[in-house]
Design goal:
four-stranded mixed beta sheet; alpha+beta; 6 strands; two-stranded antiparallel ribbon; elongated; 147 residues
Length: 147
């Protein structure tokens, strides 16, 4: 049963993140309207996502009827993590760094002639990625994927 709860929790987290990414910034109530997930589940999932730094709260806005409590707007925290994309062939390297909202943070192109061995080629790619991250002032521990 515990494993089923974990899968359900992961599903709800992913569903909420995708909703905020696609429609955001959103209040918890607006997430409920888009997903039909129970409010208690949204509250619990959002709490964890806020603690992990994946989501953050922005300005609060009035509800639909302009009275009562204001609702905090949730959005993805761009500084949570970055994806690195690399393209290469025999004479060049191209790299791009994207934040989790798919905004381009850094682009870089370099002429290159690849070394004859696989190990040397991998070293060239690794060095290129490190230099691209340095140019953007992004620490390696903030990289969540390379492709």
């Amino acid at each position: 049963m515990n494993q089923q709860l974990q899968r359900s929790s992961s599903y709800h987290r992913a569903f909420i993140l995708n909703c905020v990414r696609h429609y955001g910034p959103l209040s918890r109530t607006e997430i409920r309207e888009h997903t039909a997930i129970r409010m208690a589940t949204i509250t619990e999932s959002v709490k964890g996502l806020l603690e992990e730094g994946i989501l953050c709260e922005g300005d609060s806005v009035a509800g639909r009827f302009k009275r009562g409590r204001k609702f905090a707007q949730l959005h993805l925290d761009c500084a949570f993590g970055y994806a690195v994309g690399v393209e290469f062939d025999c004479d060049h390297l191209c790299g791009v760094i994207l934040d989790i909202q798919a905004h381009t943070v850094q682009q870089r192109r370099s002429e290159a002639s690849f070394a004859p061995t696989q190990e040397e080629g991998i070293c060239q790619l690794t060095d290129f990625i490190h230099r691209t991250l340095e140019a953007a002032a992004i620490p390696l521990d903030k990289v969540i994927g390379i492709g």
